Amino acid sequence: MADQSPSEQAREAVLRAIIKSAPSVGNSPAGIRDLAEAYALLERDLIPNAGVVHNKT
User: Fold this and answer.
1) What are phi and psi of 14, to 5 degrees?
2) What's the superkingdom here (predicted)?
3) What is the dihedral angle through the alpha carbons of 26, 39, 33, 45, rounded to the nearest 10 degrees?
4) Mapping DSSP to helix (H, G, I), strand (E, B) and coil, where does residue 17 land?
C-alpha cells in the first residue's frame, strides 16, 4: 500500500469497513440504506443534494 496515494488508501479503508459491517446490519432497511449511501459516496455516484427540493419562489 506504500505506492498508493492517501486518498486511495482512505477509499480502500472505507470500503473494507463497509464490507466488514455488512453482515451485522442483517435485513435492517436503515442499515442497508446507510451502507449503500456510504458506498455510493465512496464511488461518487450519489449527488449530495439529490433528495433536496428547492423552492423556486
Assistant:
1) -65, -40
2) Bacteria
3) -150
4) helix
The predicted model scores a pTM of: 0.56
| Model pLDDT for residues 21-44, shown as the tens digit of each residue | 888 887 788 888 888 888 777 777
| Residue 5 identity | S
Burial level of 7, CB count in 10 A (0-12/13-18/19+)? exposed
Which residues, including other chains, have CB under 8 Å from residue 4's CB and lie 6 or more apart?
Answer: 12
Greatest Cα pair distance, the chain, in angstroms, is 52
